[in-house]
TrEMBL record:
Keyword Hydrolase: yes
Keywords from the named record: Hydrolase, Periplasm, Signal
SUPFAM superfamilies, A to Z: Phosphoglycerate mutase-like (SSF53254)
Protein name: Histidine phosphatase family protein
């Protein structure tokens, strides 16, 4: 009788584990569609799920450039527009609702520094000029940041040609990012992987 009861308890436990796993996988699949450019689409909920498995790296293009827009400049002509700053703030607020813990970096241009600052919500920003290196050198820059960050999640503001290079090199796809578009990556055994395109909601 006791053995039978224990068996039932174990069976219920295993069923509960399987059901939970199924729900997680189903939720992940529902949010993990594909973009027309061939990259998986990763929203903030899916990103939060990925971050429970390993630290994530999200690389954003900066907000709207002032020198390529008729909109009002935030300040410096080489920086971003007022509208771009507001967009960066809104993106940061939405992002932080699901990913609260991350370290923030940007390249050393006015537009990336301003974008990261408005995105940050007061979080400390580290400027790294190597995030301007948009060929194969970008991987060394990312790995150096990961090493310094002690495996924390990373958000870095960089440039469209960096994102285009990574998408082509890692996935063989053409990616032409708009302002504040992003890519999601992670590191495993010292190697960087491109998970997909970040889609803000």
């Amino acid at each position: 009788m006791l053995a039978s009861a224990i068996s039932v308890v174990k069976t219920k436990k295993y069923v509960a584990i399987l059901v939970t796993a199924f729900i997680i996988l189903a939720g992940f699949g529902a949010q993990h569609a594909w973009s027309s450019n061939g990259l998986p689409r990763i929203d903030s909920k899916t990103l939060a799920l990925l971050a429970t498995q390993h630290p994530v790296i999200v690389l954003f293009r900066h907000a709207e450039r002032c020198d390529r827009s008729d909109n009002a400049c935030l300040s410096d002509k080489t920086g971003i527009t007022v509208e771009g700053a507001q967009d960066a703030r809104a993106s940061g607020k939405a992002f932080s609702a699901d990913i609260k813990n991350f370290e923030l970096y940007s390249s050393n241009t006015v537009r990336t520094i301003q974008s990261a600052t408005w995105f940050s919500g007061g979080k400390k920003l580290t400027v790294d000029k190597k995030l301007m290196e948009c060929g194969s050198g970008i991987y060394g820059s990312i790995n150096a940041i990961l090493k310094k960050s002690a495996n924390n999640n990373i958000v870095a503001f960089t440039h469209n040609h960096c994102l285009t290079y990574i998408a082509k090199d890692k996935r063989g796809v053409k990616f032409t990012p708009d302002y504040l578009d992003g890519l999601v990556m992670h590191a495993e055994n010292g190697k960087l992987f491109l998970d997909g395109e970040f889609i803000a909601k």
